[in-house]
Write a structure and sequence with these properties.
- The chain has 2 helices and 5 strands, in the order αβββαββ.
- The protein is an alpha+beta fold and 115 residues long.
- The protein has one domain: Trna Endonuclease, Chain: A, domain 1 (3-Layer(aba) Sandwich).
- The protein has a 5-stranded mixed beta sheet with strand order 1-2-3-4-5, sandwiched between helices.
- β3, α2 and β4 form a beta-alpha-beta unit.
- It is globular.
Amino acid sequence: MREKTERGRIGEGLAASYLNSIGHTILFRNYRKAFGELDIISFKDGVLYCSEVKAWNESNGFHPIECFHETKRSRMRKVYYYLLKEIPAFYHLTPSFNLIHITEKKEVRFYSSIF
C-alpha cells in the first residue's frame, strides 16, 4: 500500500509541475470531501481545471481514461459543486474535468475536458 501511495504522491507532483509549466495556477491539491476528491484544481484563462491524476502502468491492459465511469464522473461533479458553494467567486469560471496520466516512464499526458 505504501508503494501505491508513494507512486500517487510522485505522480501528483509531476502533474502539478506540468500544469505550472503550461501556465496554470495551482489552487488546491487533494481537495477532499466525504463523498469524493479532486486531485488538483488549477486555473488558467478563465477556466477552472479539475484534474484526476493517475500514475498508471499501461501494461495493465487498459487505459486510465477507462476509470472515468459514471460514478467517478458524478463524484467529481459533486465535489466541484461543493467547491462552488465554498468559494462563490469561482462560479463564473468555465469548468474542465481532466485526466493527467503519468506513465511508468514518468511522462505526463494531459487529457483536457474528458467529460
